[in-house]
Amino acid sequence: MMGLTNIAADLIVEGRKGKNIRHQIPGLLRQSVYARLAGYEDTNDHEGLSRDPAMRAVIGKRAIDRTAASSGTVSRFETQILARDENIQALANLNSAWVSKAVSFSKAKKVILDIDSSESPVHGSQEGSAYNGFFESTCYHPLFCFNDYGDCEGAALRPGNVHSADGWREFLEPIVKRYREMDKKLYLRGDAAFASPDIYEYLEDKGILYAIRLKANNNLYREIEHLMTRPVGRPSRKPKTFFHAFSYRAASWKKSRRVIAKVEWHIDELFPRVGFIVTNMSSSPQSVVHFYNHRSTCEQYIREGKHALTYARLSCTRFISNEVRLALFVLAYNLGNFLRRFALPREVAHWSLTSIQLKLIKIGAKIVSHSRLTIFQMAEVAVPERLFRSMLSRMHRLGKACARAPALSL
C-alpha cells in the first residue's frame, strides 16, 4: 500500500552470507509484522503460517510458488539478525520513517505528542525484569510516545524497576528533531511522572508547548483556598467545576511557571476533586484543561495494542531479543493504525484494532490459485462487498500518492 517494508532493505544489516538465501529481508520483515498484526505473536505460529496462501501472497516472490519462511527461519531472523545493536536502531529508524511518511499526508501544521510508560508483566527470569511497586508485579517498564493521529512514535524497553520518566531525553530527542525538520509545531502532554524541571526546561528551549500534570502539595492548595469551600445552595447533579490560573515556583525550579487548577464538586462526595497542570500555554484555563484531558487517548492506544496485538508479551530470555519483539509489535500496531487512518471509510473509521483484525485480517476465505493469479473469495458476513471495494479503492489511491511523494531521507 505505502511501500513501507521496502525501506527495510536500506536500513537492516544483512548478516547472512550463504548463496542459497530464499527469503530476503523485506519479505522476512513483512512476515514477522503481518503475523503479529493478525494475532500470531510467537515464532512457532509460523510453522502453519508458512503454508498459508494469504501469508505467501503478502511475502511475495518465491513464497508465492513455494512457502513463506519457516518458524526456524523467522526465529533466526528475529533473535540473530535483528538482535544486533545496529539493527535495533534500524528498527527504530524504520518506525520513524513509517510515521513520518504517514504524517506527511496530513496538512496540519501541528503535532501533539503524548508520552507515557506502561507495564509488561513477565512470568519467568527474563533478563532485565524486576519487581515494580507501583504495578505490584515483576515486569518490564517500557516508555511509549504517540501522536494525535494514534501512530506510535516509538517505544523504549526498560528494566521493570526504573522511574516512569527514566531515559526521557534520549527517547524524545530523535522525535523532536524529526518534526523540527518537517516544520511542524509540537505540543506535548504527560502525567505527573514527567513533572520535572529538566523536562520543562528542555521543552521550553525547543519551543514546544506542553501541559503536564503536577502532583498536589500544600503550597499549591494555598493558591486555591478560595475554591475549597462547597458552593452555597442546593447541590446540582452535574458537577460544579471551577478553574484558576496562577504563577508558581517550586524550590527546584529556576523560574516561575503557569499552573492551572481544576476543582470539581460532586453531589455525593464530601471533598472536591482537585488537579493541577503546569504549562507554558497562554490559552484560557478551561482550554488548557480540555487539551490535557485528551491525553487519555494515549492510554487507550496502549491498551488497544496490548489487547489486539498482545505487545506486552515479552517472553524471550534475553533483554535485546525482547527489544526486538517490542519494536516489531510497534511496527504491527502502526501498520494497523495506518489501515484505520487511510483505508477505512468514514462509516467504519471508529473500528478498533481488534475489529480490524477480526473483520479484515484474521478472516476465512476460499482461495483459488491459477498459474498467474490467486483469487480470494470472501463471505460478506464481516464486511459487505460495497464497503470492501471502498477500502480497496482508498488503498489504490494511497499507493499512487505514495509513488508520487518524494523519497524519505533516512
What does this structure look like?
The protein has a domain at 87-309: Transposase Inhibitor Protein From Tn5, Chain A, domain 1 (Alpha-Beta Complex). It is α+β, with helices and mostly antiparallel strands and 410 residues long. Strand 12 (366-369) and strand 13 (374-377) form a beta hairpin. It has 15 helices and 13 strands. The protein has an 8-stranded mixed sheet with strand order 6-5-1-7-8-11-10-9, with helices on both faces. The longest helix has 25 residues, at 319-343.
Which overall shape is indicated by the principal axes computed on the Cα atoms? globular
List how many beta strands DSSP finds: 13
The biggest beta sheet is recorded as: 8 strands, mixed
Q: Spell out the helices and strands N to C.
A: HHHHHHHEEEEEEHEHEHEEEHHHHEEH
Distance between the termini: 20 Å
- In CATH, the homologous superfamily of the domain at 87-309 goes by the name Transposase Inhibitor Protein From Tn5, Chain A, domain 1
CATH topology of the domain at 87-309: Transposase Inhibitor Protein From Tn5, Chain A, domain 1
Low-confidence stretches: none
- Based on the coordinates given, report the CATH architecture of the domain at 87-309: Alpha-Beta Complex
The structural class is alpha+beta
Mean pLDDT: 89
Query: With helices defined by DSSP (H or I, 4 residues minimum), what is the helix count?
Result: 15
Which CATH top level class of the domain at 87-309 fits?
Alpha Beta
Biggest sheet strand order reads 6-5-1-7-8-11-10-9
Estimated share of beta-strand residues: 15-25%
In which range does the helix fraction lie? 40-55%
